[in-house]
Design brief:
The protein has 348 residues and is α+β, with helices and mostly antiparallel strands. The chain is 26% helix and 25% strand. The strands form six sheets. Strands 5-4-1-8-9 form a five-stranded mixed sheet. A three-stranded antiparallel sheet has the order 10-11-12. Helix 4 packs across helix 5. The longest helix has 25 residues. The protein is globular and about 65 Å long. The relative contact order is 0.10.
Length: 348
């Protein structure tokens, strides 16, 4: 073979190697019997808007997308999002064969010029792998798809507890040059946790442009196990609507990692009006204070006709530790004694 032909084949060979590496990535471990809500980090390829992202991922309500990104509810669908911006997209997640996948959505309609690799790598910003799209849709030949064909896009996710705690799993596409330490620091977790849940043994196992499972700490809630939205999870810096849109819950680490819920004032999606949200005279989200003890009317879940609430008590009293003051006094006296002894020896 002459050099001219080899030169022409080189881009094809490099593309094939890239495709092979991309196709060998693994899904997220998931063995929980319960479905859950998860997040994926979508990186915009070109300038777009929130409405286009909502449509691409089949997010039912714009407010769900706004809440996942802590954007004001007044934000419009035509809000411009620049290229290379990360937008966190909420998805429903289920576990199947020990792997987590988005449940039912998104559904993508094949456009002219599309190929499975292009759909995976460009349209969905490498959140999903083209062999996964092929398998999820029973496509014998990945090169043979037709315009107008509907494809299920199996986005990666998980519902598993991490170290015995409920978390919100976030699919983060690794940037070139990133390290586990940097990712852990960015999302408030630790390297060992990331390595364990992603099966990473060395830094070489961390691949650029591939999704990694990042567990985000969730706020504590009072939601009952028999609630239709159990397990109800919200990550720090997000707000979530539940109970057919009647309740808005916010997670803020500054609120002692406790979920704060209140009536949303929205029109409910399945009820004519929102059911009562009271706790023995207190409205949902309101509280009473006695001394430094506070009683809050908290959200506890919902069923087909009722929104559950419960009274939760916490204390805002600052607990001073006498032993700490004693320790500081003791240290001061020790330091003073040392100075006296040094002075004594110097002037002898």
């Amino acid at each position: 073979m002459d050099f001219a032909k080899l030169f022409l084949l080189l881009p094809i060979l490099l593309s094939a190697l890239s495709t092979l590496e991309y196709s060998t990535a693994q899904g997220f471990n998931c063995s929980s019997p319960s479905a859950c809500h998860a997040l994926v980090g979508y990186i915009t390829v070109n300038n777009t808007n929130l409405g286009a992202i909502q449509s691409l991922f089949n997010v039912k309500n714009l407010r769900s997308l706004l809440g996942a990104n802590n954007l004001p509810l007044s934000t419009q669908r035509n809000q411009t999002i620049p290229a290379e911006q990360i937008i966190e997209v909420p998805i429903n997640c289920v576990c199947y064969n020990n792997t987590g996948t988005s449940n039912g959505a998104p559904i993508y309609t094949v456009q002219a010029g599309d190929g499975l690799f292009h759909i995976a790598a460009e349209v969905f910003s490498r959140l999903v792998l083209f062999p996964q799209i092929q398998a999820a849709n029973g496509i014998p030949n990945p090169d043979l798809i037709t315009i107008g064909q509907k494809l299920k896009i199996p986005l990666p996710c998980s519902c598993d507890d991490v170290d015995g705690k409920r978390v919100v799993h976030y699919a983060h596409v690794v940037k070139s040059g990133s390290t586990l330490e940097e990712i852990a620091r960015e999302f408030g977790t630790d390297e060992q946790t990331l390595a364990t849940i992603n099966g990473i043994k060395t830094e070489n196992d961390l691949k650029a442009d591939q999704p990694i499972d990042v567990p985000l700490k969730a706020c504590n809630s009072s939601v009952r196990i028999d609630s239709l939205d159990f397990p109800f999870l919200a990550a720090n810096g997000t707000y979530v609507f539940t109970a057919n849109g009647c309740v808005r819950c916010t997670c803020d680490a500054a609120n002692n990692w406790t979920l704060h819920c209140e009536p949303s004032q929205n029109t409910p999606s399945k009820w004519k009006t929102c059911p009562s949200m009271q706790c023995e005279g207190l409205s949902l989200g309101n509280s009473t204070t006695s001394g430094c003890n506070r009683t809050i009317c908290s959200y506890a879940g919902f069923n087909n006709s009722t929104i559950f609430t419960s009274l939760v008590q916490d204390s805002s009293c600052s607990t001073s530790s006498p032993s700490n003051d004693v320790s500081r006094i003791s240290l001061n006296w020790d330091f003073l004694s040392i100075l006296v002894l040094l002075s004594f020896h110097l002037f002898q």
